[in-house]
Amino acid sequence: MAGLMTVIGIAVAVLYSDTGKAHAILPGSAQRSEFLCAVPSDAAAVVCFSDKEKGRRMLPSWVEFDEDFSPKVVSLHFNGSFVPLFIAKGDKENPVSIRSSSETLVASSQRHLSEGLSILTDDSFNALSSRFSDRNVIYFSNEYALRLIPSWLGKEYSFLSPLVSTLSEWMAFALDEDSDKKLSFQGVAECGKSDAFFMNVLKSQGNSDARITEVLPSSTSFALSIQISDIVKYEDAYLKFLDASQKLSSFNDATLGWAENLGIREVSLAKWKTVDGEDVWAVLLRQAKASEESGTIVDNGYKSYASNLFGPVFSVPDESKCAYVGDWVVYGSEKAVNDIVLASTQGDYYDYTNPSVLITYQHQRFNVEKIMQAGSGVRKSGGGMTARVEIPKGPFEVKNSGTGKINLFYQNDNMYLCLKEKDGAGLWGVTFNEPICGCVGMVDYYKNGKLQYLFAAGSKIYLIDRLGRFVTGFPYDTGSDILLGPAVYDFSLDGEYTLMVLHKDNTIGMYNIHGQKVSGWKGIGPQDTVLSLPSLKQDGENRYWIVQTARQTEVYDFWGGEQLKGKAVKNLVE
Q: Is the CA virtual torsion 94, 109, 101, 174 positive or negative?
């Protein structure tokens, strides 16, 4: 943003329901940010964040913050160029404070507030925002994709704009990880039922996992991958999309038999540097089964087939050659195809050692990972993917203190939390909007013999009872996003529970049930990737934490601190 922000607007905050009637903001009652009611309806993008540092990392780098103003929402408005509107918490009399370098934009925000015509009156935005909390979300109008994508990712990614502009009206990206190594988001789209939106083509597909990193070279700088669970359903939905977009006449029917013969399960576009430093592109398709011709490079007899069936984004400058690599088939230049074959035979796979952008569509969500930790850029034979923590998906066995039975607690695809009998009979389901962190513990919070279920999502600790009611006072915030946990301990056997969690920044935290760090805890933060929650080891009167990392097993004192070494602890890990 050019120039100093000089205009300040103060307005009364109200939220508008789907009926258009105003109601007062109750602290903590609204899942989405209460400040959205101050965003004018012509916003091209809206970013909600928990603190200014998160905002700086989530917004385009050209957006400048005034140090004496702490906004919670920033919206971008296009008038030849993007102009930001900063929205912050005001005081009791005027709950919303507004700033911008544009006096017109501030006046527009105040007018929208007074007339109840904010961005929330946009049906697509309203439906999408109701699915998210106010913590760290980017809302993105796909109408402005051509200008927004270069702002966020850089001009070299402008080629994604045609795809994004046809996906849906709005998308939302919730911050998943924010560290020095990686910035990642989980995104969903709001598209209604129109065949003219490509998102409805993708919705025809079930849940499957991205496997593109199995075959990418370590020098990859960009990859886009879409999972296909049923190629016939995909084809039917894609033809409807082309028809609705008035593009059906350009479709090559020959690609239908080609795709079904391969049994395509994943379509990917990738860019990387060869050993001699040349940028190359390739299209990679995962088949239903591995080919017997793996490693053989031949002329490509199916040029433009991938872009014809999956969209222009899956086209590359040179796709003259083709090779099968296990259950993948790769199309590209001779140099690119040869590089993929060499990478697969040498074990040189994508391992997050280079700055890169990785976009995958899986489980009906877009995952966007911006890898910022630069490596040497030198090809490493025999390399492998960086170890990743396995997050259990459940269902988790819990005891129902009302019936005495063991029930199954789980989270379904739309994020609802559910409890069912072991024979499959459902007991309840409640709305939730974040993935839980792979653990569910049982506690007797009221110390009356009735059990509740403890779990984590984002940076918070939640507690829900056996009837699906969230316990009053929860959630409690640990202040740092949780990757895995909590493991629940009752060391004194008096119901004063201790929780152990693995944070997304690769540190291990010890908390009480209210999310407060336990007094005396020094923390555990290994250099290598921690693969699981620590296990407790008793040795006489001493207790230790055993931590498994990607390279070794490490031992720490019960109160954390530095890794313990030497003969005294060697026996603890043998």
A: positive
From first CA to last CA, the distance across the chain in angstroms is 58
Instruction: Report yes or no: 102 and 131 within 8 Å, Cβ to Cβ.
Output: no
Map residue 121 onto helix, strand or coil. Answer: helix
Across the strands, what pairs with 9?
Answer: 98
Q: What is the 3-state secondary structure (H, E, C) of 194-241?
A: CCCCCHHHHCCCCCCCCCHHHCCCCCEEEEEEEECCCHHHHHHHHHHH
Cα–Cα distance measured from residue 394 to residue 484, given in angstroms and rounded to the nearest whole number: 13
Low-confidence ranges of the chain (pLDDT < 50): 1-30, 374-387
**Per the structure block, which two tokens stand in for 12?**
């009364």
Beta carbons within 10 angstroms of residue 84's beta carbon: 24
Kindly report, residue by residue over 422-448, the tens digit of the pLDDT. 988 999 999 998 999 999 999 999 999
Alpha helices in 100-230 (DSSP H): 103-115, 123-129, 145-153, 161-167, 199-202
**Residue 553, strand partner residues:** 548
In sign, the C-alpha dihedral spanning 25, 28, 30, 34 is positive
The helix-helix angle for 254-262 and 231-244 (nearest 10°) equals: 150
CA dihedral 309, 312, 315, 317 (to 10 degrees): 150
Would you state the pLDDT for residue 20? Answer: 37
**Backbone phi, psi, residue 255, to 5°:** -70, -20
Pair of tokens at residue 216: 């990418």
- CB-based contacts of 223: which residues, under 8 Å, 6+ apart? 212, 213, 216, 268, 269, 270, 271, 350, 356, 357, 358, 359, 360
In a 13 Å sphere around the CA of 450, the CA atoms on its Cβ side amount to 9
Token pair of 130, please?
């109701």
Q: What is the pTM of this model?
A: 0.65
Between CA 17 and CA 486 the distance in angstroms is 36
Cα(383)–Cα(436) distance, integer angstroms: 32
DSSP string, 369-408: EEE---------TT--PPP--------EEEE-TTT--EEE
Q: For residue 52, give the amino acid letter.
A: K
Q: How many CB atoms lie within 10 A of CB 553?
A: 13
Closest C-alpha among 373, 441, 406, 418 to residue 180: 373
- Residue 553 in 3-state DSSP? strand
Residue that is written with structure tokens 């439906």 in the block: 127
